[in-house]
Amino acid sequence: MFGRKRKIKTSDPLVRKLMDIVGESEVLFEKEDLVAYECDGYTMYKGMPRAVVFVHDTQEVSDVVKCLNEAEVPYIARGAGTGLSGGATPLGGEVIISLVRMKRMLHLDLENRKAVVEPGYINLKLTQSISDKGYYYAPDPSSQYACTIGGNVAENSGGAHCLKYGVTTNHILGLEVVLPSGEIVDIGVEGVPDLPGYDLLGLLTGSEGTLGIVTKVTVKVLKNPEGKKTVLAYYDDIDDASQAVSDIIAAGIIPAALEMMDQVAIEGVESAAYPVGHPRDIAAFLLIEVDGIEAGIDDQIEEILTVCKQNNVREVKVAKDEAERALWWANRKMGFGAMGAISPDYLVQDGVIPRTRLPEVLAEIREISRKYNLRIANIFHAGDGNLHPLILYDASVPGESERASKAGSECLKVCADVGGSITGEHGVGIEKSAEMRFIFTDEELEAQTNIREVFNPQDLLNPGKLFPQPGRCVEVKRANQDEVQLV
Amino acid sequence: MIQSGTESILPKEQIIEVDEPDHLLGNGGVQIMEAYSEEDISKVLTYAYENEKTVNVISGGTKRGFGGETEKADILLSLKHYTGIVEHSAGDLTMTVRPGTTLKEIDEELAKSGQFVALDTPWPELATIGGIISANDSGPKRLLYGSARDLVIGLRIVYADGRVIRTGGKVVKNVAGYDMNKLFIGAMGTLGVISEITIKLRPLPKFEGLSLIHFPEGSESEIRNFAVSLLDSMMEPVTLELLSPSLAETLTGKNSHTLAIAFEDRQKAVLEQEKWIKENLPANVVHTVIHQEQAQKWWEDFRHIGPNGHNDDNIDAHTMAALKIGSNNLDVLVNLQTAERLAETHHVTIEGHGGLGHGISRIFVKGQPEDIVQFITEFREKVEQRFGYVVCTHLPFRLRETVQVWGEKPAYFALLEGIKATNDAKRILNRNRYIGGI
């Protein structure tokens, strides 16, 4: 007893209460332990949590939530922390409820094509655990080796293959959720479709952890396609590549994936862990994958090759085997991380545009790059119009972080102005909350925050995210400056 | 009284006083107000909200028998004249359309560009896109193409107080803010009136085929095993729909449990999959395959079964009901058989079908009103034992008072009520049309 008490050097009575629920070893409260939770994958803003609590089952989540409600302390649910918009980043003083220890698969029913997992279950592990039977889980964010299904639900994550198969929301059949009141609700965990009543599954998916904490997830699993072929096409002119994208869709082909990278992005991936040997002097490449019934694929590949050639492709080739295909994808999926090889820091953006507007949007992004004197790489889920401009900067150069942030915001404005969106799969979080005004009026934002109030009336669950906050911009800038000085 | 001041809302030729007897399906209005624009919708709702007038919403009328405990609201807002495609961006595979446009009109227009809306819902020449979305209607092809929640990417909604709110956007991938679109899909117009829909499209299939497999009586395990083996193969059926013997007789002339398996792809891929079916057929089944126009015609007939809001009969013994059943995929077979058995003991006739790969079944019931009520009550009990639910998508008005259209309220009903109160605090929109009296 004495020994244990000596270990716990906290005068925070809340920490003691949380330890009573989850056990002493399951609460972090010392500064050096909390540093790792200052931010998620979006590193431009950092805030210190009050404590981190590791929960092990639904009841613990409920008990912790009730305890925090009583103390009126704000809290955030967190998975692997791979989010790219600051959704799991504290503004300061929140308790982080970490769901990483709730990582079991609870039920697998292949006949009915569904699996029930806990929120801390890792995305890729789901596919790996059923692949021997020929099944997989479709949403494949680039962080899939680390990110959790619970986090995917919160962010409504996408991935390279969602052009044909849809994003997370299209694959969620049921949820168990702990509401901000601490109440545990079962919203179709059995996985029966079209449950009577408003579509709470659809509303909760992508609500960025502001409406409830997901404790069980029922997902749809799919059978592997019979065949798959992958094409790589090199272009000297980015407009030709863009036109090829539109022409492929217009030909009535829905590829499983249709990705584009521009010259700066190629420079990055070729300098990183999985170089393919892409020519450095091309303007862009397209990575196109078609899957489905084997007998129908060759015709589609022929059509794609024809379209590519009609649009002045320099070189186009079909992956000769699985090893080559895997290398092309590893190279592509390294895209964001690879920027580290050519720039000290980078900021990822996530705009969406009607795919037919690609050439003009890319021209405007080039203009933004010139204006701020920052290089911008473009990695693009071209098939569904989801653009990831990567703004390269050096945080140690005074003022460059702010310039990068402004350039990112301007890229989103361009997307919004052509009828697009400010985020396709990374979420709003802290990063883009001000930019929500690019696409929604105050009334429309209020319609959404009113819904939040139904679930989260005290706004203790992940406060300050997703919606514009008066004065937030100033706060973010200050945080950046502090960071820069520290560095 | 009610009329006073209504001329300032809409021109008088857009307001019709209803002096006909009560409609068999209810959900009418003392006055019909016809909207020709979003502004009209907004004006009507602003007036209704300020004056606490109740409003029912209608366009094609195919879902008039779906929910609702109000014979007549103060106003029946009709959207059937608010029609037309606002924008079709073929290169983006998206379309923006007004709610009163019928699915048939939409698909005829889109076909010119080789595209379509992937919703194979019934009565396409009558049912409007706004009604289909509001009722979350779907057909067998949802197995591969998904349902409304997978296709709708943006909406314009006129809220109960007349405000116009946009949800979602015009791009196919979008996670900015809450996915508010989802709230309005299947909400039966209780949260707002949909005034514009942006929806994802698909290219028309290059080739289509339909395999019909008729099973002899007593083949339950063969049907199940065959469905499981097909689902476990790498084939990509667009439908795996099981028809009751009675429905199979109507559509194919053969009175036996029948699987309707559609393939839509490149011709080579369709033929290859049909070859798989042939090679894996169970013993003693009758197998027919049709292609292209013949297959299209078959599905066209399929979309013209069951009640449509205009084909009810006033004779008691011909009373019609329609049920939507949600269940685990493979329980579709069990539920269909339960329905067949109960139909016999309750002296009603049924036609039914359900998707063994998607878990939604439809059952059309005919008979005396009291028998139908008994049938539904017992059938629901059985379905619920296997975690499923039964929703009555069509019932005459007076039966809706005795049968719970939506079943029991869920444990989280307070959230649904809270959402309703947020969007329509005075409860003027489609009052009592939805689950738990929302």
TrEMBL record, chain B:
Segments traversing the membrane: none
UniProt entry keywords in alphabetical sequence: FAD, Flavoprotein, Oxidoreductase
Top-level taxon of origin: Bacteria
Transmembrane helix as UniProt keyword: no
Tagged with keyword Oxidoreductase: yes
A matching Pfam family: FAD_binding_4
Gene3D superfamilies: 3.30.465.10
All copies of domain FAD-binding PCMH-type, residue ranges: 25-204
Protein name: FAD-binding oxidoreductase
